[in-house]
Design a protein that fits this description.
Layout (H helix, E strand, L loop, with lengths): L8 E8 L3 E9 L5 E11 L6 E5 L7 E7 L8 E6 L4 E7 L9 E6 L2 E7 L2 H9 L7 E6 L5 E7 L6 E5 L7 H14 L3
Antiparallel strand pairs: 1-2, 1-12, 2-3, 3-4, 4-5, 5-6, 6-7, 7-8, 8-9, 9-10, 10-11, 11-12
């Protein structure tokens, strides 16, 4: 079963401002250059209930999809991803216990349950003690087959920049983009 809107590769770039984090999500062209703008996201800092809305346009006038926490201030909070009309696309949650030494997330899509972890255990531990812009990567694997279904790779730079690869057609672009932005926002990057 394929997702309604699958995109095999895209980029997420963060722009930090005083009160919000802004993200631009662009399609990756076959040659690796930036393609069309897919969404603009905005996350308010220090919000009690985490919510990020993605817009179709730079003026942020046309909502396209969003993710929101199910509960306030919960270490294992689940996040639901919804389309512009409120339809459920999937969900994700941070696994607080497993994340103490290596950040771990669970991703759910129709017909798929996957677990994502930081690829490098040493970098995962160092990130907890040293405040440097480490290049870190997450791989999400299908819980049944062990196959990689999504990867998010942070590029080495002062501003956060990610390459997201989604080889599994069951993962809707909007869920993948939400998870990628969620990784950045929830890890306080």
């Amino acid at each position: 079963m394929s997702a309604q809107m699958h995109l095999p590769r895209f980029y997420v770039r963060q722009k930090v401002t005083m009160m919000v984090n802004r993200y631009a999500i662009t399609e990756a062209n076959p040659d690796g250059s930036d393609g069309r703008l897919m969404a603009i996201a905005q996350q308010k800092r220090m919000a009690f209930k985490e919510q990020v809305t993605f817009f179709r346009d730079e003026g942020r006038t046309q909502p396209a999809f969003s993710f929101a926490a199910r509960q306030r201030m919960d270490l294992n909070a689940g996040y639901d991803v919804r389309d512009a009309e409120g339809g459920h696309l999937g969900s994700f949650r941070k696994d607080f216990g497993q994340s103490l030494l290596r950040s771990t997330f669970h991703l759910s899509a129709p017909g798929l349950e996957a677990t994502g972890r930081e690829r490098n255990q040493v970098v995962a531990i160092l990130r907890r003690f040293v405040d440097l812009p480490f290049s870190f990567h997450f791989d999400f694997v299908d819980n049944q087959t062990g196959q990689v279904v999504m990867s998010s790779e942070r590029q080495m730079s002062l501003r956060d920049r990610y390459t997201v690869t989604v080889p599994d057609p069951r993962i809707d672009f909007r869920l993948a983009a939400s998870m990628a932005v969620g990784l950045d926002a929830l890890l306080a990057r």
